[in-house]
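pinned: reference chain
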Amino acid sequence: MKKMYNVAVVGATGAVGTKMIEMLAETSLPINQVKLLASKRSAGKEVTFKGQTLVIEELIPDSFTDVDIALFSAGGTISKQFAPEAVKRGAVVVDNTSHYRMNADVPLVVPEVNPEALKRHKGIIANPNCSTIQMIVALEPIRQAYGLDRVIVSTYQAVSGAGINAMDELKSQATAYINGTPADQLTATILPCGGDKKHYPIAFNALPQIDVFADADYTYEEWKMINETKKIMEDDSIKVVATCVRIPVLSGHSESIYIEVKEEGSNVAKIKELIAKAPGAVLQDDPSQQLYPQALTSIDRKETFVGRIRQDIDIDKGYHMWVVSDNLLKGAAWNSVQIAETLHEMDLVRV
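pinned: its structure tokens
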């Protein structure tokens, strides 16, 4: 008999949780039942799923009774408290927060890149940072062919990465500014980071801070990209550095990436060929036709788009590229559902 799974979505009313529900409606994962979980204030709201009306339930430990797979996207504090409760009741957790990512006992997985890591799971699998995911999808085929010595990435991240309220704040600020409100009088309560001392407008602005500042004046977001890349690729020798910037785009993260490969024999044509064949990647690179990835055209697409591939002017083994993906899909909801699909395909869901 074909296995059927009971799937829970934790944080069902958030920006990522909403997309998780959409992805579950399209997934190949054989689903018996979907349970939507959120805070007490959201309990009772109704959501349509594949023609059915589902009622959101309050998240409590016993919510995970008879749940096989639990997709979490409700913040690290919730994951810390409730993911072990889900595992205790027999569920496998796919966590979209940063809480478990660098835990040595928790696989950090991009299914196109390191699905074998799922075999080591002990009940919890971590979904990487959105910006890390799309970068890894683009770089892994190059690493496999030529090795990677150095990665320098600058991100241009959409406000949807900070949640629905940040998206709403961008819209209200943009409207106010266009209607004559001076920049220094725009209401800002969320960005660049909800937990920091000051907040700045994002409308018509660029904020070189995502998350709070940490060691060596890099933000946590930048450290996430550095550390997660090394963990996923299982190579601490790769030199990685990031500068993460929030820009006034609703959805779709963009990245300017510079790499230096280790082995001889690479060139632009060969790297383009690798990208074109890579699972989950789409090559969009024809300068003669002004074809390159854009945030707007990545929305609601599951792929990672790669273009503007150029050899560095001075470094023979250096290459530049532009990488774009829908941060709510491949960067979060879709990657989580892909992990669930891969767990099923590898018979790693504990039921």
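why pinned: The first strand starts at residue 5 and ends at 10. The mean pLDDT is 97.
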